[in-house]
Amino acid sequence: MQHLFKWFLAGILCLTLSIPGHAAVRIKDITSLEGVRDNQLVGYGLVIGLLGTGDTLRNAPFTEQSLQSMLDSMGVNVRDARLRTRNVAAVVVTANFPAFVQKGTRIDVTVSSLGDASSLSGGTLIVTPLMGADGQVYAIAQGSLAVSGLSAKGDAQSLQVGTATSGLISNGAIVERALGDSFANLPNYVLQLSNPDFKTAVRVADAINAFSRARYGVKLAKERDFRSVILRKPSNITPTRFIAEIEGLAVQPDTPARVVVDERTGTVVIGSQVQISTVAVTHGNLVVRITEQPVASQPQPFSRGGETVVLPETNIEAAQSGGPLKIIGGTDLQTLVSGLNRIGLRPSGVISILQAIKTAGALQAELVIQ
């Protein structure tokens, strides 16, 4: 009966924590499990079957050397011959090696030209070993390329759409070596916050402990710093099921007061915690317009030795526009945005005002200018 009551409390708590509240998100969306990540693989290979759009062997000697080595391994001796083919291209093959992947699993690979090939469309990648950072071969890639770009060239005109020198082979590599799986034997698990914050780390730990007290009768989480939370796995549950239960819990992350400004595109992003102390703001623009208009100067009638010349005529106009003095300030984002909108500014004007407010000490947030 006591176990049934604990299960009932755990279900009620799970339902309560999963109800979407104000800016509440799942733990899995703001954290990642330490040690569970992809690895990078890379390899060098050849793409064949190109329709005259491959590497120029004279300009890409490594392509010719690779082609000769491949033919030698197949019993064809071409060491003393000068190859002229344009249907081969040297490429670099890259792939992401997922966590917990096993032998025989297929993964996607990206193929990119290394020489002066104009297009890889219609090509086929031949057997290419993919190595990790330790120099070990973990997968073998081969297959037909899917190229989304288009490249066409004539004597007087050329057309290019997208990138024709890079392509994708879906499920183009087979895993030949699996990484060691130590996930099941770890005594503790560490959740890494995507946006490090002390308050968010505490909220994540509190949400996990509230669930674990009702579900297992003990606290299982402890915040280590502003970036990570340590979890202790119960003994009567598998690691996969335990992490799945934790990832579904909802918390409300805390965000710093920050204003991000991109002056190149005129983009202004204001966080929900930004506050501005009450200030009076006015904004005006000075526009100076200079126009040049040539004027012909002619001599008087019946004059001797006169010449017609062209003289410049310069007109300068100056206009200054500005608005009335407005008082803005507020304790929330809506009030702040309404105050800035009342002034009627463009993005460039908003950027200038935010910088001036920060200099005046009235912007209670971090101003990030990109």
From TrEMBL:
Sorted alphabetically, which keywords does the UniProt record give? Bacterial flagellum, Cell projection, Cilium, Flagellum, Periplasm, Signal
Taxonomically, which superkingdom? Bacteria
What residue ranges carry the coiled-coil annotation? none
User: Which Pfam family, any one, appears in the UniProt record?
Assistant: FlgI
* Signal peptide boundaries: 1-23
Give any Gene Ontology cellular component.
outer membrane-bounded periplasmic space
Q: What is its main location?
A: other
- Keyword Signal found: yes
* InterPro entries the record matches: Flag_FlgI
- Subunit-structure text: The basal body constitutes a major portion of the flagellar organelle and consists of four rings (L,P,S, and M) mounted on a central rod.
HAMAP family xrefs: FlgI
Give the UniProt family note: Belongs to the FlgI family.
| Free-text function comment from the UniProt entry | Assembles around the rod to form the L-ring and probably protects the motor/basal body from shearing forces during rotation.
What protein name does the entry list? Answer: Flagellar P-ring protein
